[in-house]
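seq/struct pair 1
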Amino acid sequence: MKIISFNVNGIRAIMQKSFASDMRKVNADIICLQETKATVDQVKEAVAAIDGYHVFANEAEKKGYSGTAILTKELPIAVTYYMGSVDHDNEGRITCAEFADFFLVTVYVPNSGSELARLDYRQTWDRDFLSYLKRLEGTKPVVVCGDFNVAHEAIDLARPKQNYNKAAGYMQEEIDGMNELTKNGMVDSFRAINGDVPDKYSWWSYRAGARGKNVGWRIDYFLVSTAFLPRVKESFILHDIMGSDHCPVGIVVE
């Protein structure tokens, strides 16, 4: 089974590009999307050109903002859209599909903002999201993928010294949130499979030709429960797929 995750930065916009043909070529069993910026109906309409998938989507109360979706060839046992918190469940940031032997969660973690206006909220989210994942894990293993809006370690961004504790995505408080996930049994599959390979990123600023220069950040992840890790045979980044300021990341599971 191949699963990919892609922050599309607007599903209606990216469908006007090469997204549909790219997804056909990738031929994933499951496609997880973040930042769809669309209603549930708009997501379903936008991806109708990609045949063979059941589509499940979550939307934010604020129109044109946030949003997540799962496109899957295999029909899940159940799909849920909420963490169970009134503080977090109005922005469409989670879609969770239950399969026979694991939960698959796609997530768009809140950005702390250019002025760090949401950094305090981000810390509350991180704590509550960990609790949510551990509740799921009490039933069966968890695979969680998406845009975590943090570079976990210095190797995960091109310019760590210039950004540490100065920019959203590489504040110590955000790093601490990711540390808590990994300390509590959620494994970064890319590092587990590929080791400390450098210069591997999933997001690039639109400014100053950053993508062409590979001045990027790895902020999109597949984290898996420790018990699930032996099933992960590949973990990869599809840096050649365009259309967004992110690129897809993925895993192959046996």
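seq/struct pair 2
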Amino acid sequence: MGAEAGDVEAGGRLAVEGVDLHYGAAIALRGVSIGVQAGAVTCLLGRNGVGKTSLLRAITGAHPVTRGRILWEGADITRLPTYARAQRGIAWVPQGRDIFPLLTVRENLETGFAVLPRAQRRVDDEIFDLFPVLRSMLRRRGGDLSGGQQQQLAIARALVMRPRLLVLDEPTEGIQPSIIKDIGRVIALLRSRGGMAILLVEQYYDFARELADRLAVMDRGDIVLSGAPGTLDEAEVRRRLSV
């Protein structure tokens, strides 16, 4: 994995190198290395509790790492706070969505303005091309939306930030199949444009395999399998995902 991370550093994207992360005395990540390249979807798979969200927290600055380093576009961001990483183009859609239930859809989208220069603080029409349902709901409160609509809102809010790295934590969790397809379509479209790196955490192998250029499987705080979907033993991947 170390060579892969170096390759991505040279390409100017994301490289996580030998990262440990602790919660008190408990270790959540053990020497994790992973690379994410622009124009590609890297999907992180694993059972609950193996460290997937902890890795996202390390990348986005939500929790400090104990050892190792994180490089983004060639710069060491290991010690940068979350807001500084967001200003550098890293957007996170957390598990559970974390929208503001009392704010309107428009106001939720506008919270993405915080990291943008004043001249860029607008919600482009493309957001509504990607998520048409939001256009008719701009005055509705976020808490009044369905779970699937809230997930679309959370992704749209991240895209308002004009990210170059989009980090998604289980966007299909608890979502109806039709909206899962819509989310998959949006991720595929963003990937096809080539300018954005996408790191996707998933538990559903079929969804991940269809979208991912590269899969990484976590177990006990480390990445135990990694490669293009067609190069990995599907039975072994599924075994590591089963409860």
